[in-house]
UniProtKB/TrEMBL annotation:
Residues 242-294 are annotated as: Disordered. This is SEC-C domain-containing protein. Signal peptide: none annotated. Residues 253-264 have a biased composition (Basic and acidic residues). InterPro entries: SEC_C_motif. It comes from the Bacteria. It holds the Pfam family SEC-C.
Length: 386
C-alpha cells in the first residue's frame, strides 16, 4: 500500500516503512496506512465473525451445556445478593467460554485459522491464551490507555474509546485478549471490563488478603482460578467487608471458593437454569419491605421449587416461612444459595419435599455453598416449618 503525498506541487509515493506525512513520527504502516487500508477493515470484520461464531455455538448441547448450567447456578448462589442476574450470567458465561473451557476456544481458533489472511492468523495466534487482567489506568498515549498490572509487573495498552471515559487511578478488571496489530503490548476485552474508581482501590488489598488466607499470592493465575470470589469481593461494600473480616468470614470464603470450583469442574448433572421473568411473588407488594438480597433469595427459592415441581401448598409454606424469617431476623444476605439450601434441608426433615431424599452435602453442592453453611440455615428454619 502506498500513499500519494502532495506537497509544494509535487507528488511523492510514501511506502509502508516511511515516516507518515501527517507528522506523527510513526511509520506510515502504523499510522494513516492502517486507517486507509482496506485490508485492515477486512481483517477486523473477519475477527468479529470468528468471535461471533464461537459465542453463538458455545456451549454445544450435551455435557458442555450442563457444565455451564451448573456453573451459572453456582455463581447465582454466591452473587445473587450483590449483582443483577443478567450480569452474573454474562460473567459466568465469559469465564466458562474463555477460561474454564479454554480448550473449546483454542479448538475454534485452530479451525478458523485455516483459510484467513496473514494478519488475521497473527491475531488468532495471540488470542490463544486469554487472561484475567486487574490493572490501574496510569495514563494515555497516542490514542491508547496505558494500564499497569496491580499484582505484577505487566503493562498493557488498550485503544481509547468513549465507553471507557475513566480518569487516571481507575482500576480495570476483566478477561482480555492480546491484540498485536499496532502495538505488541496491546490488549482488548473479551466483552466486559469492570471499572473501579480510585476511591475504592482498597479492594486490591482485600484480594491480597484473600489470597494470603489461602496461602497463595494474588497474581494472574490466582485471579482466574478464584474468579467467583474476586467478583464477590469487588461487589461487597467496604464496610460490610470489614464486618466479614471481624466475623472470620474470610475463612469461610476460602472454603466456599474451593468447593464452588470443584462443583463447576465436576458438573456431572447440571440442568438448565430456569428463566422466569416474572416469579410468582418475588416482585409482589408482600415483600417490598425486604432488601434486594432478601427478595433475590426468595426469587431463587421460587425458581428452584418450580424446577422441582413442588406442590402449591408446600411451596407457599416454604416461601412464607422464608419471608417471616427475613422480617424477624433481617439478615444481611451474603449467600442466597446457602439460605435456599438450608430451607430445603429443613423441609426434607419435615417430609415436605417429593422425590428421592438428599444429603446435606448433596444440597450444599447443588447450591455452591459449604455443607456447614447449608446446615446453619437448616437449623434456623427447622423450628419454623410445620
Amino acid at each position: 500500500m502506498e500513499y500519494a503525498d502532495e506537497r509544494k506541487g509535487m507528488m511523492t509515493l510514501v511506502k509502508r516503512n516511511d515516516p507518515c506525512p501527517c507528522g506523527s513520527g510513526k511509520k506510515y504502516k502504523k499510522c494513516h496506512g492502517r486507517t486507509e487500508s482496506g485490508t485492515h477493515l477486512l481483517a477486523e470484520q473477519e475477527l468479529k465473525r470468528i468471535m461471533g461464531e464461537y459465542i453463538g455455538s458455545t456451549p454445544a448441547p450435551g455435557p458442555d451445556r450442563a457444565e455451564l448450567s451448573l456453573l451459572v447456578k453456582t455463581w447465582m448462589s454466591r452473587l445473587g445478593g450483590l449483582m443483577k442476574a443478567g450480569a452474573i450470567e454474562g460473567a459466568a458465561y465469559e469465564h466458562f467460554a474463555f477460561n474454564i473451557r479454554r480448550d473449546l476456544w483454542q479448538q475454534h481458533l485452530e479451525r478458523s485459522s485455516a483459510n484467513v489472511r496473514d494478519e488475521v492468523k497473527r491475531v488468532l495466534k495471540s488470542w490463544n491464551e486469554p487472561f484475567v487482567m486487574f490493572a490501574e489506568l496510569t495514563g494515555k498515549e497516542e490514542g491508547y490507555l496505558i494500564l499497569k498490572d496491580v499484582f505484577g509487573d505487566g503493562e498493557w495498552a488498550m485503544t481509547e474509546n468513549e465507553r471507557i471515559a475513566a480518569p487516571e487511578g481507575t482500576l480495570l478488571f476483566g478477561t482480555v485478549l492480546s491484540d498485536p496489530r499496532v502495538r505488541e503490548d496491546a490488549i482488548q476485552p473479551v466483552s466486559t471490563l469492570y471499572s473501579i474508581s480510585s476511591e475504592n482501590a482498597a479492594v486490591a488489598d482485600r484480594i491480597r488478603e484473600f489470597a494470603a488466607s489461602l496461602g497463595d499470592k494474588a497474581d494472574e493465575a490466582f485471579l482466574e482460578s478464584n474468579l467467583l470470589e474476586i467478583f464477590a469481593i469487588l461487589h461487597t461494600p467496604a464496610e460490610e467487608a470489614a464486618k466479614q473480616q471481624d466475623d472470620g468470614m474470610l475463612e469461610e470464603q476460602a472454603e466456599h471458593s474451593s468447593e464452588a470450583d470443584q462443583a463447576a469442574r465436576e458438573a456431572a448433572a447440571g440442568t438448565e437454569v430456569p428463566v422466569d421473568d416474572e416469579p410468582q411473588s418475588g416482585k409482589g407488594d408482600e415483600i417490598e419491605d425486604l432488601t434486594d438480597g432478601q427478595r433475590g433469595t426468595i426469587d431463587m427459592l421460587i425458581s428452584e421449587m418450580e424446577s422441582d415441581r413442588l406442590d402449591r401448598t408446600n411451596a407457599e409454606n416454604l416461601k412464607n416461612v422464608m419471608i417471616r424469617y427475613f422480617r424477624e431476623e433481617n439478615p444481611i444476605v451474603r449467600k442466597p444459595g446457602g439460605i435456599v439450601a438450608g430451607i430445603y434441608l429443613a423441609a426434607q426433615e419435615k417430609n415436605l419435599l417429593p422425590g428421592k431424599p438428599f444429603t446435606s452435602k448433596e444440597m450444599a453442592k447443588r447450591f455452591g455453598v459449604s455443607e456447614g453453611t447449608a446446615q446453619k440455615y437448616a437449623a434456623a428454619f427447622s423450628g419454623r416449618l410445620k
